[in-house]
Amino acid sequence: MDGETLNGGVNQVVRIGRTVRRPTGAWTPAVHSLLRHLAETGFTGAPRVRGIDEEGREILDFVPGEVAHYPIPEYVRGDVALAAAGRLLRRYHDASAGFTAPDGAVWQLPAREPREVVCHGDAATYNTVFRVGLPVALIDFDAAHPGPRVWDLAYTAYRFAPLGAPGSNGEHVPVAEQARRLRLLADAYGLGPADRRALPRTVCDRLHALVAFMTERAAAGDTAFARHLADGHDALYRTDAAHVRAHEERFAEALLSGASTEPPPAAAT
């Protein structure tokens, strides 16, 4: 069956009518259980599962809108879109918090403690659907895994603020502006004080974990990740992690200055 090939990163993704077909993996049953749970809670910011097709691909609803691949569109870097991304991730986390994984569930990435929510695992601009300039849904849940809220938010912050070193992904964002935008994202999410203190260092840890994962997958014969290493993605992430580490105190000060010491209220799903 023919269809429109979409930009799927490490996967071949095909749109057929109102559905999307994607490769499956050992983690697919757990991810489908999660997506069904999200639908049952009323969370609308994720695709619905429709099953497996005759070629063994998963069938998901196509989520209409624009996906923000690099180079990042200007509207994605606006404050309104950034705050909306924080609120979207918070709603997703709150919806996932009540999920009970099936017995023997397999995740692509290892679970991390504390298991507060099911992390999306790759909640970046390129896995976010925008409409009229605002984020409305997350896609590509292959990297989902149980873990702490701040672990997931760290990667969203890295991609949305963004927090890269000068020139990273072709962008040059001054440190003061990165700090301001990081605070805006944390406020929109409703991040508590302990996680605010941990967020800058967690960004570094998250990037190093990504490099380790890429290296492991490439060594196992995954050609997509081998290509990423050949293109220098690992070096970019290490450079960006060093940048965040060098400015950790400034980022932490921005996150904590005048922030509420009370735990954030639960967001509605």
TrEMBL record:
It comes from the Bacteria. The keyword Transferase applies. Signal peptide: none annotated. Keywords: Kinase, Transferase. InterPro entries: Aminoglycoside_PTrfase, Kinase-like_dom_sf. Residues 108-160 form the Aminoglycoside phosphotransferase domain. The keyword Lipid biosynthesis does not apply. It holds the Pfam family APH. Gene3D superfamilies: 3.90.1200.10. GO terms for molecular function: kinase activity. This is Ser/Thr protein kinase RdoA (MazF antagonist). The lineage of its organism: Bacteria, Bacillati, Actinomycetota, Actinomycetes, Streptosporangiales.
